[in-house]
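tool_call: predict_structure(chain=1)
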Amino acid sequence: MTLANNHAVVAIRREPLPSKVIRARLTTDEFFGHQPTSSTSLPNPEPLLENLTRCVIEILAGARELEQIARWVTDDVYRHLLKRVVVSARARQAKGQNAVRPTFTIGSTTVCEPRDGVIEAVVIVRGRARTRAVALRLEGLDNRWRATAINVL
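tool_result:
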């Protein structure tokens, strides 16, 4: 290290890389994007399926805030649910109804695994007036399950 105009100058010695080193070029999305996780590294998805279903029904009824499930859903799912929340709120307002916590029970859950790290499920929700199905797709991303699709039928 030498001093030049009161600034330290450090000489960096570069050594050539060995010829056996293979350089892989990664795109920004591949490096910084969500990293897939195997199903064997993740917990049982059934409790999450039931809890997400319960939360989504309450969110659409206006009894719960959408932000409460933000960490468990992808950005696309969040935007989709936000649109549904706005439509539901407008419908309640047009009818002069207040948001109330819905009374329902979780029925059967059907789960399939189309490939490693992906779970697709249908959860039956029984309410007083009607029975609905909630279709969910969970993917193992960044060492946890995240919902990449939620549809209330």
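agent: The beta strands are 2-4, 7-9, 104-115, 118-127, 131-141, 144-152. Proceeding to next step.
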